[in-house]
Amino acid sequence: MITNSPSLDLVEFVETNILPQYAQFDRAHNLEHVTRVIRNALDLVRITGADINMVYAIAAYHDLGMSGPRAIHHVTGGKILASDARLKRWFSAEQIKIMKEAVEDHRASASHAPRSLYGKIIAEADRDIVPEIVFLRTIQYGLANYPELDHEHQWQRFQQHMDEKYSVNGYIRLWIPGSPNERRLAELRNIISQPRLLRQQFERLFAECASTKD
Question: What is the pLDDT of residue 177?
């Protein structure tokens, strides 16, 4: 039976014990980000018919691995989920295995397709391909992790990331046919293909980020 929302006791557990951990991460992987990913993932449940409790938990745990090295955060996050015995209250061992693999498979630069529908859902939800949000998160990450770079070098890093990940030749892949990301990615690629327009977007958002930087 497909329900419209996750179990209330699971939501209470996640909101009390899991989501607050995102406060320690950079602004590109903070509580605002995971909240958007959860919302995106739950929207995809309606398209796919997946188990909503599993999808909700995977989305909530997906970036907890940011507590360690970013390069392997997807692997670390899978281990964190699998080792959390509290989840046995809601999920079987087989479900937890699928959830662990879904967290491991969510990274956009992964060399293989997600191993299950749940991996595809969380990978798609994590894309969050709203052009303004993509630009903002990229700038926030640059400022947080490369503070030594001056304005021009931040732009170069930003532009390179857009080209390598989101352009028509980029490595990003969409996994759920008919998802809102298809239209949004087309919009994003249209901006990326126009360097002057892309630079304008960067300058506007960079100025906003720099003015609010702690």
Answer: 86
